[in-house]
Specification:
A hairpin with a 6-residue loop joins strand 1 (22-23) and strand 2 (30-31). This protein starts with a helix and ends in a 10-residue tail after the last helix. Helix 4 (97-110) packs antiparallel against helix 10 (309-328) and helix 6 packs across helix 11. The protein is mainly alpha-helical. A two-stranded antiparallel ribbon has the order 1-2. Strands 3-4 form a two-stranded antiparallel ribbon. It has a single domain, classed as Amino acid/polyamine transporter I (Up-down Bundle). It has twelve helices and four strands; from the N terminus they run H-E-E-H-H-H-H-H-H-H-H-E-E-H-H-H. One of its GO terms (cellular component) is membrane. InterPro entries: AA_transpt_TM. It is found in: Membrane. Keywords: Amino-acid transport, Membrane, Signal, Transmembrane, Transmembrane helix, Transport. Its main location: membrane.
Length: 408
């Protein structure tokens, strides 16, 4: 019910946001190239900077979250190999820090040529479908095995966890689900890449319907069959569940698909951050050769390697910083919950509602105005609950955590 509700909310708010790409008219108005530009055109004032702070903080946080997630999948492959060699009873504790560093190095290598890697998003989409289908198939197979609990309607019972812990975990789950529907933060940037005719908002609305419907079906199936497979002990990541020791190769393939998917997804979410900083710096240093000079060098077995000095330095520093933070805070579900809670209400609900009201010149205290504002307030309460639950989860993790020594 919660998944379906978030899907409906995200879809409806995305329809409003798609109409705000142009201003003042959604079809013939002036293009707004970024989310901040749209807020500037419709709302202005302090809300522009509030939007930028929330949006780019979430984009940075998403890059950190993807680094953590990719390393967990790589560690799962390494542990699978360890179990196969040493037996299922072997502890096989492996640090995820080297794998975070490896993921960061891959991102640095992709920096200069990302614009040429148009096929990467297609590969990422194929990988996403692949690991989802594998995860669901393995879950179905495990669900039909005998001798294990299928879980209960109420989930983990009071007694196994305290009443307070139960509430915190429910709130944290809300944040996880909110993060799963967090694409609104780059909806305007994606819409800016569409050609017209037909009008960009019509194309974006069709894409949103297809995207939300497809992901919701996969989320529903993964959640249901994953719970059928593991019951109340369902892990945060099905593919790293302790029940999946066999078939080794299939689990490894699924985790490899996750890693490849996140390599592309990381770049997509990082591009708006790169562009924002580079535009801001170039505007204030228009006469500096450092920020405009392009260089090239010949690399054996590669050819001519072209790069902009400032872009290469800044983007490399960004990747290094994200990797270091990921190594300091490798708490997958809690970090995802915080990101979802922080970004869902302002970027998915608040700004689309306020811009829609401003665009339509809707008078205060009319029925539609009251309905939209009430809806926004309810979503705010849900986001705050998710944020509190996720922060509580991080606090509990920090009590037993040693920096740079996390092992799985």
């Amino acid at each position: 019910m919660v998944l379906f509700t978030f899907a409906l909310v995200t879809y409806y708010m995305s329809l409003l946001l798609a109409d705000c790409y142009r201003s003042p008219d959604p079809v013939t108005g002036k293009r707004d190239y970024t989310y901040m530009d749209a807020v500037k055109a419709h709302l202005g004032g302090l809300q522009i900077w509030l939007c930028g702070l929330v949006q780019y903080s979430n984009l940075i946080g998403t890059a950190i979250g993807y680094t953590i997630t990719a390393s967990i999948s790589m560690v799962a492959i390494r542990r699978s190999d360890c179990f196969q060699k040493n037996g299922k009873q072997s502890p096989c504790h492996i640090s995820n820090n080297p794998y975070m560093i490896f993921f960061g190095v891959v991102q640095i290598v992709l920096i200069p040529d990302f614009n040429k890697l148009w096929w990467l998003s297609i590969v990422a989409a194929i990988m996403s479908f692949s690991y989802s289908l594998i995860g669901m198939g393995l879950s179905v197979a495990r669900a039909f095995e005998g001798g294990h609990s299928y879980g209960t309607a109420g989930g983990v019972a009071i007694g196994e966890v305290s009443e307070a812990q139960k509430v915190w975990l429910v709130f944290q789950a809300l944040g996880d689900i909110a993060f799963a529907y967090s694409f609104s933060m780059i909806l305007i940037e994606i819409q800016d890449t569409l050609k017209s005719p037909p009008p960009e908002n019509k194309s974006m609305k069709k894409s949103t319907l297809l995207g939300v419907s497809t992901t919701t079906v996969f989320y529903m199936l993964s959640g249901c069959v994953g719970y059928a497979a593991f019951g109340n002990r369902a892990p945060g990541n099905i593919l790293t569940g302790f029940g999946f020791y066999e078939p080794y190769w299939l689990v490894d393939l699924a985790n490899a698909c996750v890693v490849v998917h996140l390599v592309g997804a990381y770049q997509v979410f990082a591009q708006p951050v790169y562009a924002f900083v580079e535009h801001w710096v170039q505007e204030r240093s228009s006469n500096s050769k450092l920020f405009h000079k392009d260089c090239s060098c010949r690399i054996p077995m590669y050819g001519i390697y072209r790069f902009n000095v400032f872009q290469l330095l800044w983007r490399t520093c960004f990747v290094i910083a994200c990797t270091l933070v990921a190594m300091l805070l490798p708490f997958f579900n809690d970090i995802v919950g915080i990101l979802g809670a922080l970004g869902f209400w302002p970027l998915t609900v608040y700004f689309p509602v306020e811009m829609f009201i401003a665009q339509r010149r809707m008078r205060a205290w009319t029925r539609q105005w009251i309905a939209l504002q009430s809806f926004s307030f309810i979503c705010l309460v849900v986001s705050l609950a998710a944020l509190v639950g996720s922060i509580e989860g991080v606090i509990q993790d920090l009590k037993v955590y040693k920096p740079f020594k996390t092992q799985y």
